[in-house]
Amino acid sequence: MNRGFRLAAATGLHKGDRPYQQDQVMVLMHPRVAGCVLGVVADGMGGRSGGRKASDQVLMTARQLFSRYKPGRDEPLDVLRQMLEDSHTVIKLTAISSEEEPHSTLAAFLMNPAGDCAWIHAGDSRIYHFHEGRLVKRTKDHSYVQVLVDRGEIEEEDANIHPQSNILLGCLGMKTTPPPVDVHLIPHLQPGDVLLACSDGLWHYFEPEEMGGLLAAKPPREAVEMLVAEARRRARGAGDNLSLAVIKLEPLPVTTEATSD
Length: 261
Description:
By secondary structure, this protein is an alpha+beta fold. The chain has one domain (5-251): 4-Layer Sandwich (Phosphatase 2c, domain 1). It has six helices and eleven strands. It has helices at 47-68, 76-98, 144-151, 200-203, 208-217, 220-235, and strands at residues 5-14, 23-29, 37-45, 103-104, 106-111, 117-122, 126-131, 134-138, 182-186, 193-198, 242-251. The longest helix is centred in the middle third of the chain and has 23 residues, at 76-98. It starts with a strand and ends in a 10-residue tail after the last strand. The model has no long low-confidence stretch (mean pLDDT 93).
């Protein structure tokens, strides 16, 4: 394991101005392998109970698979793909048994002790990779407005205020359409890197530079609290459920050894 950094993590979850909570979030440290971390955000949809059942299934599936994961033996992308596929299957079965239509997004990252990292996402929950406050990469939403942006029909900054910004083209639990499988590999995370997974209830209110700067300047717990509070303020009483998971690679303090003549 790279000893040049220490890991700090935090999660945030808020109901917003909705009558019930359908988001779920977690950051898990591996039960047997130090430095192995899983972060998951799931934004459920499907009514009062359907959406929560869907996001609960995502987290339950993630916990089970991560508990059996063995770095060096198992490929992280294989585990993440199975997480997506198994969650999708269980959510569809839940829909049949409960006569509901539950769906969920997924944004998950898995970091190994050596510092390599993989992520996967489906829907409009996002993962951001920052280095010292600057955006390195983020996921691309599986949404109607993202298609319009890609076609050049609207600008990126107009997507948030588009009347059809909530239409998803891919997520977990859809009856006739398999979930999209978008993955990314980071060969080696380093001190100064931050990974942020979050639902649209958070990222809707911020430019990437705002989030990256705050995450670079503050410890994860403090940054999470500030992001949630500012998202709530900017929502002006009309905020969605929001969730976020953060891991930050903090450089180790420099130590000097005493010398004598």
